[in-house]
Specification:
The structure is a single chain. The chain is of the alpha+beta class. About 30% of the residues lie in helices and about 30% in strands. It is built from five helices and ten strands; from the N terminus they run βαβααββββαββββα. Strands 2, 5, 6, 7, 8, 9 and 10 form a seven-stranded mixed beta sheet that branches. The chain has a three-stranded antiparallel beta sheet with strand order 1-4-3, with no helix packed on it. α2 crosses α5, α3 crosses α4 and α3 packs across α5. The protein is globular, with a radius of gyration of 17 Å.
């Protein structure tokens, strides 16, 4: 069941002009990569016996949900704002070396989410269960490379405003455990300001969660 949303009255919306300008670009999305300190978070996740990958999905999507800009979408040509966004993530089938895309509803608790996500991922036999809905954040872990930049395939659909989140291999730096994190978002709704707020919120969660 899709999450609820309300339609934005673009005549009264402060961002209407910005949205229209970027919506007509050849490539309306942009991608930013930043470094985050996960020293405390990694230790906490390990102490609870949780999957680091699934805990990262939760952390990223939890923080993104709190920033309004990441919950805007286009639906039937109209701008809408979702009340909540769920999760979709890639999950490796170690026997075949191929990934599957798993959909899991967002939860309020890290452990509850990780346990549900693990059961869902392990129980899903299909690689793809159908087109992703508008009301998800897409997460693609890349734990084999401590990258400095990442890019994505482009569907060509300018109204596809689903944010994409990636993170790479973590590494030690000056005694801390660091990880590269990337955000690809539709510029009609998301600016560098919002990426900055997301990065700050996520780093705070890593330190306090």
């Amino acid at each position: 069941m899709a999450n609820s949303y309300h339609i934005i009255d673009e005549k009264k919306w402060e961002r209407a002009v910005h949205c229209a300008v970027f919506r007509n670009c050849v490539e309306p999305s942009f991608c930013v990569t930043f470094e985050a300190d996960i020293t405390h978070f990694r230790r906490m996740v390990k102490s609870q016996g949780l999957s680091f990958t699934l805990a990262m999905v939760y952390a990223v999507c939890n923080c993104a949900n709190k920033i309004e800009a990441f919950r805007y979408r286009f639906v039937d040509g109209q701008v809408v704002l979702y009340d909540r966004i769920d999760t979709a993530f890639t999950y490796l089938n170690k026997e075949t070396g191929l990934f599957k895309v798993v959909n899991v509803p967002m939860k309020d608790d890290l452990k509850e989410y990780c346990e549900l996500a693990a059961r869902t991922a392990d129980g899903q036999k299909e690689y793809f269960t159908g087109p992703l809905g508008n009301d998800v954040f897409q997460c693609s872990p890349l734990p084999w490379v401590a990258y400095t930049h990442v890019s994505h395939t482009i569907s060509g659909k300018k109204d596809n405003a689903t944010p994409l989140f990636d993170w790479g291999k973590y590494y030690e730096k000056d005694g801390r455990i660091m990880i590269p994190i990337s955000v690809q978002a539709h510029h009609s709704f998301v600016d560098g300001l919002h990426i900055g707020r997301f990065a700050e919120s996520l780093q705070r969660y890593f330190c306090e969660g």
